[in-house]
Amino acid sequence: MSKIGYVRVSTRDQNLNSQIDVLNEYGCDRIFFEKVSGRK
């Protein structure tokens, strides 16, 4: 069974790397991410 991770930040200035690092340590095979504002 593969592990899938999801990373999201709400501004383009925020960094995804710390969240991605945690998911990689957890052993995720695929990681999806997005940078989206909650305002829109």
From TrEMBL:
Keywords: DNA integration, DNA recombination, DNA-binding
Domain Resolvase/invertase-type recombinase catalytic: 2-40
Biological process per Gene Ontology, one example term: DNA integration
InterPro entries: Recombinase_CS, Resolv_N, Resolvase-like_N_sf
PROSITE patterns: RECOMBINASES_1 (PS00397), RECOMBINASES_3 (PS51736)
Pfam families documented for this protein: Resolvase
GO molecular-function terms, A-Z: DNA binding; DNA strand exchange activity
Source superkingdom: Bacteria
Annotated active site: 10
Descriptive protein name: Resolvase, N terminal domain
Species per Swiss-Prot/TrEMBL record: Salinicoccus halodurans
